[in-house]
Amino acid sequence: MTATGTRLRERIQDRTVRVAVIGCGYVGLPLAVSFARAGARTTAIDLNADRVARIRRGESYIPDVAAEDVRRAVAEGRLTASADYAVIAEMDAAFICVPTPFTRMKAPDISYVEAAARGVAAHLRPGMLVVLQSTTYPGTTEEVVQPILEGGGLRAGRDFHLAFSPERIDPGNRQYGAHNTPKVVGGIDAESTAVTAALFGLLIDPRHIHPVSGPKAAEMCKLLENIFRSVNIALVNELALLCDRMKIDIWEVIAAAATKPFGFMPFYPGPGVGGHCIPVDPYYLSWKAREYDFYTKFIELAAEVNQGMPFYTVGKVVDGLNARGQALQGARVLVLGAAFKRDIDDARNSPAVEVLKILWTKGAQVAFHDPYVPELHLEEPSLHGDPVPPVFRSVPLTEETLGAMDCVVIAVHHSAFDIPWIVKHSRLVVDAQNAIRGLDGTGGQVVRL
User: Which one of 24, 97, 243, 277 is the catalytic residue?
Assistant: First the structure.
């Protein structure tokens, strides 16, 4: 190991290492707090002034991060926050945890990664470690980040260390977080891999750190994890469409298949897929594959199936209303849930929001309720003649609200929802989450996915 690598290992071992985490959202803040709890002096870097101020006050704005953990880390001087990249000059390691969305044309948008790399490059010094954690296509670390970092004359592998380690944050997961989820590490050389693994060793058991041959393998690992879910969810979504035509209960079928103790893993249908990974990652890989004249037909077909589920869900609303002699246009519809999954406040790429958008553009009078999401800003103007994209605010969930609706759509099954009570006070319920399973006496009042 080189002298710079040895010095960094020594700082890690005696816990005097100074760590910067760039981008303090659902991935960055848990990582920053975990490093601070492990004894590292940690600086959270974010351009959002409100986030910086709240961290400095010892507050958490991420449900998965306990406010007490932030308060204690700040009070003990192990965690601070800044909007100025200049603090990078004082750091030993920098983790890039910024968003990687896609464009309207489903092409990768790595502008946040590029901006963060430029911010680090301006203050990069010899001996530092830079780790990209943002989900992206294979090649980003070496083809995009590395040239930016080397723009000032320092060379990766000679003057500084560089690696990719995929984030594995699962919002709402109370069992696994940044402090105990196994890590995959791929450095541009053996020393970069070794020092990255050593640093993660402050957070988790080193036996749960898995080194790979390089950044591309680590980048592809993350895409495989999420595409695996996308493809399997698409499979059960397509089977749900078929079972609907065949008058077979897909939920009963899955429950029966899940009794097999080997060779089967249950996945469940729903109104679509959401979040910052599963709806996005297949397009990152498909885009990069075309560089090699390869077309990921299977992966893209799965994405197509999943994208169609919000429309299928709205079709169920239309069917339910038609059975009552009512048109969708002008109908009052309440969408229950706006987050992309149960019991979280993250509405990024949420299929529940897609359902709401489609209902709105088809002329329904739409409202929503979510105990975790207070308001929604739609990106597109409606078809109601209003050129300004609408803003929806969560309405109270009361008997009066339910009674005023022509249809209630259970798009997210939050644990706070009293399903029997909701059904009791609703005229028509479209259940996209199998929330009403086992509930007797619903008759024609409930339409299931």
Answer: 277
